[in-house]
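Researcher: Good morning. I'm working through a list of sequences from a screen, and I'd like to move beyond sequence-only analysis. For each chain I'm collecting a predicted structure so we can compare shapes side by side. This is the next one on the list. No need for commentary yet; just the structure.
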Amino acid sequence: MSAKGTDLTRGARRLSVLTMLSRLLGLVREQIFALSLGASGSSDAFLAAFRIPNMLRDLFAEGALSTAFVPTYVKVLGTQGREQAWALANRVLTTLTIYLGSVAVLAMLFPQPVVDVVANGFSAEKAVLTAKLLRIMMPFLPTISLAVVAMGALNAEEKYTAPGLASSVFNVVAIVGGLATHLITHDPVVAVFAWAGLTVAGGVGQLLVQLPSLWKLGFRPRILPDLRLRDAGTRRIAAMMAPATLGVAAVQINVVVSTSFASRGVEGSISWLSYAFRLMQLPIGVFGVAIGTAALTHLSRDAATADLGALRATLRRALQLVLFLTLPATVGLVVLGVPIIRLIFEHGRFSSFATLQTARALSGYAVGLVAYASVKVLAPAFYALGRPRIPLIASLSAVAANIVWNLVTFHRFGHVGLALGTSLAALMNVGVLLAAFQKRVGGLFDRSFASASLRIVLASGVMGGLVFGLSWLFESRPSHALVFRHSLVFRFAAALLPVTLGGGAYLLVGKWLGLDEGKTLLRRRRRAAAPAQPTVP
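Model: Good morning. Structure tokens for this chain:
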């Protein structure tokens, strides 16, 4: 493996560990949310209200701002020095505060049009609750976007620890506050307003946790806002962000479209989809976002030096890592959806019926897991190359495909069809991106990539057979064992034993087939190999 490929893997591994921590804490947060609100009218209203600021957060945190800001920051840092790079960051902070603050204020003053978009099938009472929650949560948008600038600057400096911990801070705030709320009151209306306030508090925490690292590097925020927005770097970011926002927005826009359709379905549909997508966020964040974030700095440097050969190698390596990690995750989520959801969510107000419906949605989402994660790697490559229109075309194609699918199938397949439509849209998105890269740059796929992909498929198939057999043994227990089936011991065993044995079998088969990704990701990093890299606390 090349030194650059090793650096990419190390960066991805560090980010994966931190993102894994965040996603696990996110699952704990969702457990407490499910315990308090279940899959009910109140949870549907909260999730619909949170959909818009959360969608915009996802676009900025994992999409447009990162892909536009990081390459520009890297270029300014390399050609003009750190002082000018910090000046660029200050100008971006000023711009975001003005524009996103204005968006938040408008949504707080006029929430009803937003509610009509995301939940046009709600009853009048449910729509009023959604509007009230939206007013509370909209300040989350400008706050979290400022945190994203901090993330971008630190990631560009290859300082991954503080940005990786930021999402964990958000989850810790929600967990502590959610537990306190559950202990104080069991009124779902009071609880849902408390959760709205905790959302904003968590966003503030994500920003604050990164400030010490920025200060240590030498960043000093300007007391007076920097309104000199016509410099080359700011204009370049602005020019890239407009198409980039749509270019990486397919998943988020499709989730909003699905929410709008689900609001017309049976009560709980939005919640089932949200809980299922939360489980999907674990492998997407741990693998796709982490690898994409680590690759972006390398891709930006390769593009800045016009080294297309190095760029192809970086992208090829990143996609191979994505496939190695997400294909077995896809198999596991499809086969083990019910026991995993039963273990995590089926407590308090969350019923066994909700478990089944959430598992069905999870199967639909899992079909597109590899595509979801691959887009996180592919789209930034085009922004690094200065070709933002290609992800835009791919994204619009995916959105159109999702809308058509939902219109045709919603009344027949309900919320499961909505989840499957989101996956089909992701497949459309990644297909367009791959075809465009091959046509414009070429050289992405070679014999070694095809051989590794085939071996990953074979190893995943072996793992899938083992996991299916183990799951069948647990789920086919006779009726007299029903009491045991509801015990916590059974739930842990039915979910975690197949995951553990299946994961071990996958790594062993992969090693036997000559795949080196597993040992590379698990190998302890030698300090001498990368002395400037921060350690994970």
